[in-house]
Design a protein that fits this description.
25 strands; 527 residues; 27% helix; seven-stranded mixed β-sheet; alpha/beta; 25% strand
Amino acid sequence: MLRIEVHTSLTSPKDPVAHAVRMARIKPGDYISGSIYRRSLDARPDRAACWVDLVDLKVNNEEHYLHKVKNARHADEFHYTLPDNGDAPLKQRPIVVGFGPAGMAAGLALAAKGLRPIILERGRQIKERQKDVSTYWHGGNINTESNVQYGEGGAGAFSDGKLTTRVKDPRVHLILDELVKAGADPSIVWTNHPHVGTDALVMIDENIRHHIEELGGEVRFDARMDDLLIDHGKVTGIRLQTGEEIPSSVVILALGHSARDTMRMLATKKDLALEAKNFAVGVRVEHLQSFIDHQQYRNIPAGVKMPAAEYHLSHTSSIGKGVYSFCMCPGGFVVDGASMADSVVTNGMSYAARDGQLANSAIVVQVDSSDFGDGLFAGMEFQENLETMAWKLGGGKAPAQKIESYLKHDVEPLSSISPTFPRGVEKADLHALFNDRINQSLEEFFHYTEGIWPGFTTGGATMTGVETRTSSPIRIVRNFTTLESTVEGMWPAGEGAGFAGGIVSSAIDGLKCAEEVIRRYHYSEEL
């Protein structure tokens, strides 16, 4: 396949595939098909802004065009097939615990190969879950089993459906293709920073579930795993909160990063190795989307309609801590991602249109044992304490402060930018949440950013606390090659296991674990 880079004007756009065919002077008899592989925006100030498209062309006589077209190169066409089933018979159906991105991908793969998985999700179906979340956001009590963290679709269902990943794995294309089949906009396959939108994920999650069921899988909601059953170093099944035991010699744990009670249960298993890991904490900042658009699109000709602009910022503080933007939501809203009562957890989301007046992003600081201490659960307890402290600091609401006031160590009234946190905010000094190292690193980040982006810390820009669920503070140890844990038959997958971050990387990790199960086993109803 021929891959060609073409530049398209923003003011007089052309069909990039047709443009590539003309550039390469492909003869009609040689052209088979074409598609956009990736699109990005070049808006550097020293040149005319344009779309940069990588276009894939299937042609006859490819070698001829490779030598003829200056910027053309060969690209292998992506073909993915699940591995063949292994020789070992499964005496019981495999179990997948969790129905977020990792659990969905694992369940879909196992079902496609005839293994008829039982998928267990502690939360509720997506539409019921939406009602529970809405009730909480509008002042009701939290449902500790059905919230932003728990339920069909996982935490990603309420965070914009961002699909950007730094993982270099051909399975990325498979995940995006499966989302399109389930109803996502086809542009996610080639957009440089694809997203689905929280509103669109409802239909997509349901369609994936229905497809798994059509293939012979079973998805059970309100089904929390309270015990992992192990005998002589081998998994034998799970026990639900109802007391029901489901036997199986294969369990894929796709817990998500917030199943703290489950992690505490797993730590009691002497055969299962767990380890603490670093993560990041911080705040959620909000700016006028028009300010972000102006900063990012200064070189865009007047009258050209552009999507709501994003940003990605990072800085290393003078004490060596990395500080960076995370989960940036253009035209979005700050939401409450708590999963326990009397706590505050900020998160961000956007709808598919990304047409809100404000942009938000987490600004987080890397933390390690020097911040939260030693011990397997030290990081988790650090998260919990921050979330409880934020609730107390805000008097039951989220504590918020203008960035400008934070830098002056002053608590001033919130002004032109009113935080979108759904349960309300209370002005407070957010220095009270963090230790000196975190505060110093945040302050240095804001001063640095103001230097390169004047106005980032002024104009009423606000920060709301506290952002804690960036990644799991614990990792389940697994074999580097087989991905199996130290318990035979148990595969830890996704964010909760400590091996992914985000929808796509979690789905890929769940798929890779399922591939290992498929290579080993086949299922027969006769057993």
